[in-house]
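User: Show me a protein chain along with its predicted structure.
Assistant: Here is one chain, sequence first, then structure tokens.
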Amino acid sequence: MAADPIQFFDRYTRALKTERVYGGKWLRWAYDNPAGRFAVWLAIRRIWFSRWYGRKMKQRASALKILPFITEYELAWNEFVKSPFDYKTFNEFFCRALKESARPIAAGGKVAVFPADGRHLAFQNLDAAEGFYVKGAKFNLAELLDEAHRPERERPLSARFAGGSMLISRLCPVDYHRFHFPAAGVPGETVPVRGWLYSVSPVALKRNIRYLVENKRAITLLETASFGTVVLVEVGATNVGSIQQSFVPGRPVKKGEEKGFFCYGGSCVITLFSAGAIRLDADVAEQSSRCVETFARMGDRLGEAP
């Protein structure tokens, strides 16, 4: 029996599309097949496996994959800062920078933007969001923010953002893999959280949404004038070599300014706003209420402060 296709709403064409899953057969074997799930438990979720694959993508021979990849997935190479022929390895191409003109930033001091290219789920009230990847499953904020091991009275972040708004931005291997600040403000130090490296594809998340709170993560607080404190969480995944931060803690940043990048692999960015801090744009909120991801690019409108 054929696997269910992964569908998403394209914000620009206003139509549902079917995702072309990079490594789809491998993913479905790994998460839908008993032998594959054993391989995930034994090796694939472990850091050494992703580091091993990451090293392969840093070898000179990996550059031979670049042009076929661009052609197969119809990437807009004219947006790249460098020519496709100038990348020395596949990983260098994978975490490529784009021309500033390729991602204009939505104007307005009270407007927040998507922090990354990708397929997005956004919920006005996190406490009411459940079943968006797995029917009946609810998102655990204390686990995401690495506070589940503390008594409830000692969970400052998860208590502060209860009932707040959440954006899950899923980056496929074919996407631009740099992430940016959704609003202007002052970022604090990034706190790393150790974890596994499960896939964050819907193929995997429909089996277990807890992968989002069990994977390696990096947490940063952004203090803003329009939205108060915003929590930025980068989530690692299978074959993500590393999560690199490129900002300076304590230095004010502009909306849309680069925060960092993922090395090779699919990955995920989660953005949290406190209750009432943002009014999400209707299209992404409506699609998310149906558990349908919306494709949008970094710098486009996410919502605004009420």
